[in-house]
Amino acid sequence: GPGAPSAVVGADGESLLTAANIDELAKQSMPLCMQQLHSGLKRDHKLKHQGRLQYGLFVKGAGMSLEEHTLFFQREFTRIMTAEQFNKQYAYSIRHIHGKEGKRASYTPYN
Question: Among 12, 58, 74, 106, which is disulfide-ready with 99 (CB 3.0 to 4.6 Å)?
C-alpha cells in the first residue's frame, strides 16, 4: 500500500538506512504517520508497544538492518533506562521483528 516503505539501498545493495542517517531521512522521506512516531521517539526516548511494532516494521521494511535497528532504538531508549533494562525489555522484540527469535517469521510492515 501507499504507507509501505521502499528500501533505501545503495548501488552495492547495502542498506543505507542507518542509526546515523535516520533523523535526516525521517524529515525528507517518511510518511507523516512515521514522522510522528519518529519525533515521539526522539522527544520521549520511548514508544508504546504498538508504536514500537509499527515503527520497527517500517524501518525494517525500509531496509534498516537488525544491527542498525537495535543501535538506533538503544541510543534513544537508554536516555531514560540502563542498557541492561533495554536489552532485557526491548532487544528481543527487535530481533523477533527481524525473524531471529520466536517462530523465526520475518514480519512485513503494515500498509
Answer: 106
